[in-house]
Design a protein that fits this description.
Strand content of chain A: 15-25%
Order of helices and strands of chain B: EEHHHHHH
Helix content of chain A: 25-40%
Strand order of the largest sheet of chain A: 2-1-3-4-5
Shape of chain B: extended
Number of helices of chain A: 5
Radius of gyration of chain A: 16 Å
Strand content of chain B: under 5%
Number of strands of chain B: 2
CATH architecture of chain B: Up-down Bundle
CATH superfamily of chain B: HPT domain
Oligomer: heterodimer
Strand order of the largest sheet of chain B: 1-2
Number of strands of chain A: 7
Largest interface: A-B, 56 and 55 residues
Distance between the termini of chain B: 59 Å
Helix content of chain B: over 70%
CATH superfamily of chain A: Response regulator
CATH topology of chain A: Rossmann fold
CATH topology of chain B: Four Helix Bundle (Hemerythrin (Met), subunit A)
Chain lengths: 185, 166
């Protein structure tokens, strides 16, 4: 369903965005879309390992990343950007793209600390709206096992219940007999 | 400088807003940017038809390897390559508006991913999917799907559903 176009694209004109996608066709498409939005510079990597080298050498302002890649998939890559001690920017806005938007995949992406999630097929409007949502200033939460954007979009000072951040986040339970290791879970 | 609020087992951190600090309001018109980006997708659609030939070739090679596999372990590895080829087509074809092709690829992915093991008696239905994808790519229908295409894809999805119920 079409959404209201975003108001302000000025930030994009100052940004360097890294596209991490193993398909050269999708990389070309994503580059084309980002350039059409006015993004200043687009970098490309074919997998998580290559992307990590780029992140260390030329830190981007945001990342658009596919989930299913080899040898290092999107979730492992995001985990390193968020948690590695030598990460140049643990608060990096990250949009995760996948052709397999199952509940388990979305939960795994959220737990890895992605900022926004986008299901293929990618459209001009959907990518732009996720990208702008990802770069919006947002608090981050750190627990013993999680580091990523605050999942709460609103704070309710009158919320009467317990502070759930005090407890450990639930593990994503993946049935090992179902998704094979290199496939998106 | 980041600001932090601490709880017993958590910390809420407000990171410094580097991006917001270096721009003022304004920039390109959003509607124009989206229209420009849509045009980019349309232009790339032409290239995709060429790319698709390579993807179908990769799919055919993966199918050939699967059919020539020996033993369960080898079959699982070859099915994985076929899954990846089909998975890529699923996402890309959908993005470029090849909805039937994307649906057939999705159906094949579902079979390969959800069936606990791929057996030689699955080859028939796998070949049917690959043939349908090849036909769809040759036809290169990126417009309204024909009735026959819709019937074929629905039939393939039905067969996969039945196989997964076994």
């Amino acid at each position: 369903m079409p959404t209201k176009p975003p108001d302000d694209l000025s930030q994009l004109q100052t940004m360097r965005i890294l596209v991490v996608e193993d398909s050269k066709y999708m990389r070309t498409l994503l580059r084309g879309l980002l350039q059409s939005y006015g993004v200043r510079e687009v970098l490309e990597a074919g997998d998580g390992t290559e992307a990590l080298k780029i992140v260390m050498a030329t830190p981007p302002d945001a990342i658009v990343c596919d989930l299913q890649m080899m040898p290092m998939n999107g979730l492992e890559f995001v985990d390193l950007v968020r948690k590695a001690e030598n990460s140049p920017n643990r608060f990096m806005p990250i949009v995760m793209i996948t052709a397999n938007p199952s509940r388990e995949t979305v939960a795994a992406a959220r737990d890895a600390g992605v900022s926004e999630f986008l299901a293929k097929p990618v459209t001009a409007e959907s990518l732009l709206s996720r990208l702008l949502a990802a770069i919006k200033p947002r608090a981050f939460v750190e627990t013993r096992r999680f580091f990523g954007p605050d999942r709460r979009r609103k704070e309710d000072p009158n919320y009467p219940g317990p502070e759930r951040r005090e407890t450990e986040p639930e593990d994503v339970v993946i049935d090992p007999s179902k998704p094979k290791p290199s496939k998106p879970s | 400088m980041a600001k932090a609020t601490k709880g017993k087992n958590y910390e809420v951190i407000v990171p410094p807003s580097k991006l917001a600090d270096r721009v003022s309001k304004g920039g390109p018109d959003p509607a124009e940017a989206i229209s420009r980006a849509d045009h980019t997708v349309q232009e790339m659609k032409k290239d995709y038809k060429t790319w698709l030939r390579e993807d179908i070739e990769r799919l055919m090679n993966a199918l050939g390897a699967l059919r020539g596999s020996s033993g369960a372990e080898d079959r699982t590895a070859k099915a994985e390559s076929l899954f990846r080829a089909s998975f890529d087509i699923k996402g890309q074809a959908g993005t470029f508006g090849f909805t039937i092709l994307s649906r057939v690829a999705k159906s094949l992915c579902k079979l390969l991913e959800e069936k606990p093991s791929i057996e030689t008696d699955d080859f028939g239905v796998i070949v049917a999917h690959v043939d349908a994808m090849r036909a769809s790519a040759i036809e290169q229908t990126d417009g309204t799907p024909s009735r026959i295409s819709l019937e074929v894809v629905a039939a393939l999805e039905g067969i996969v559903a039945k196989r997964l119920q076994r």
